[in-house]
Amino acid sequence: MRTLSLILLTISATAAGASTDTSVDAETGLATWQTETAGIQVRLTQISSDQARAFYLARGFSAAAAERYAAECVFMTVVRNIGDKTIRHRLADWRYTPAGQPPRAIRSKAEWERLWQKYGIDEPARIAFNWAQFPVTQTFAPGDWNQGMTAYSVPRGGRFDLRFVWRTLKDMNTGGQAHSGTIEQVRCTDDHP
C-alpha cells in the first residue's frame, strides 16, 4: 500500500507553535515538508532535476532552457485553506532564506518570462510554464486549494527556510489580518542537473 511508502518525521516547531512535518517517499526518495497554522496548510515536495527537465522538454522548451530551470531547486507547492475564513496570498510577499544568507524573494513569473524570451522560447511553451507555476496571487475560500511549481536559487542538497504570508479577508475585496508561517530546513534534492 502507498501509505507504507511514507515515513513521517516531525523535525521542528515554528515560533507560532506549528510544526513542520517531513515525509520521504520510499520509492522515489523525494521529501515533502508540510505545516499547518492559523487556517492554512502549506506543503513543499521536492521535484528532481530530471523531472523538471523532462516536464519542460515535453512542453517545447529547448534543451538549454529546460536545463536552466532544472538547475534550480524546484518544488511542487500546495496551499490549502483549512480554516473557516477566506484567505488571500501574494507570492511576492513570501521569502526564502538559504543557510547563512539574507532572505530572498521568489523569482516572479515576469522575471521568468523575460528569461524565457531571451532563450527564444515560443509563446505556447511560455504559457505552459506560466500555468505550471504556483499562482502569483489567489483567494481561497474555506476548503479551496491549489498547487504549482516554485523554484529557489539554492545549491543541490542546500537548505533554506520558507516564510509564507497570507491575509484573512473581511470580505472579498478587503484585506483583514496579515499572517505568516515558516517551513524550516527545507532541503533541495541531491541529484545533479
Task: Describe the secondary-structure layout.
Layout: E1 6-13, E2 19-25, E3 31-37, E4 40-47, H1 49-57, H2 63-70, E5 73-81, E6 87-90, E7 95-98, E8 104-105, H3 109-118, H4 123-132, E9 137-140, E10 145-152, E11 159-171, E12 174-187
Antiparallel strand pairs: 1-2, 2-3, 3-4, 4-5, 5-10, 6-9, 6-11, 7-8, 7-11, 11-12
Helix pairs in contact: 1-2
Written overview of the protein:
This protein is α+β, with helices and mostly antiparallel strands and 193 residues long. It has one domain. Helices cover 19% and strands 46% of the residues. Strand 3 (31-37) and strand 4 (40-47) form a beta hairpin. It is globular and about 45 Å long. The two termini are 31 Å apart.
How many domain regions? 1
How are strands sequenced across the largest beta sheet? 1-2-3-4-5-10
Form type:
globular
Class computed from helices, strands and strand pairing = alpha+beta
Please tally the β strands and state the result: 12
| CA radius of gyration | 17 Å
Mean pLDDT: 88
Low-pLDDT runs? 1-16
Order of helices and strands: EEEEHHEEEEHHEEEE
Q: Count every helix, treating DSSP H or I runs of 4 or more residues as helices.
A: 4
Strand count, sense and barrel status of the largest sheet are: 6 strands, antiparallel
Structure summary:
The chain has 4 helices and 12 strands; from the N terminus they run ββββααββββααββββ. The chain has 193 residues and is α+β, with helices and mostly antiparallel strands.
